[in-house]
Amino acid sequence: xxxxxxxxxxxxxxxxxxxxxxxxxxxxxxxxxxxxxxxxxxxxxxxxxxxxxxxxxxxxxxxxxxxxxxxxxxxxxxxxxxxxxxxxxxxxxxxxxxxxxxxxxxxxxxxxxxxxxxxxxxxxxxxxxxxxxxxxxxxxxxxxxxxxxxxxxxxxxxxxxxxxxxxxxxxxxxxxxxxxxxxxxxx
Length: 187
Fold this sequence. Notes:
Helices cover 53% and strands 17% of the residues.
């Protein structure tokens, strides 16, 4: 009887963990879609309005504010940010645990492994981080993040004025740019 009770309890915990894992991933997807679509919509509007230079001004002046506004729209237990090993804005520097995940993503890519669309890590008893890789997947990205042959000089001048220690350059199509990371606290 004790064995049956123990295995029923363990099975229940497994089902709960699977449900909790799915719930956490769904919450993270919602946050990622909201931030990504808001940034993309604004970026496209600025590109249309004033070209790549206007887009550089937008990214330099408004991307952090938009991230903050999106975070305010969620419950206090969900926060999203963008991180990169080659960051432009120091606010996008990864924390030590996030750096490990980004480095592992890059190692997996380098060895030909396909990355999962979402990577879930439990950081504390009730705290989780969900990562979604960000890739350079459009030519326009290289206008600000590429090498000197493809980067727009005027746009990059604007960027350097705002980010004199910029490391987010010399990317090629398809390369890992960083990740969205959503921190979720479940109590």
